Model the fold of this input.
Amino acid sequence: MIEIGHVARSHGLRGEVVGGVKAGGEERGAPATPLFTDGGPLVVRSSRGARKDADRQRWIVHFDAVGSREAADALRGKVLRAEPLDDPDTLWAHEVVGSEVVLRSDNQVVGSCVAVVANPAADLLELDTGALVPAVFVVDRQPGRVIIDPPEGLFDL
Done:
């Protein structure tokens, strides 16, 4: 399971919640989509976009088993998780953390990815060397290996 968002607060009186959804999580708002919390599964009844913040889209969601404001309030702060989507063009943090990062030009290993840092312009691969590489420079990936094509000088200090 991957984290796709969280419940921020209740909305209205009939059980809707406002939730923040990370980039790439918008597909999870379709009716009958299962989402998971530490408290168990929730099934989306309906959803609609509310507004976009720096790194999250705000959505208003109504879950099947949530019919009152009190039930919606009980979900405040819950992390929403889902199965990863099978999209070869999407770069998922769980697929790159732990991978060696190499330059396309000469196959030089520049480090190992230890985290993916959310950033409004582009997510950043944090390397074990302390370097940050914008994800837009990722050109290919294989199991355990991420290939980048950064501009000259990115790793010069």
Q: What stands out?
A: The mean pLDDT is 86.
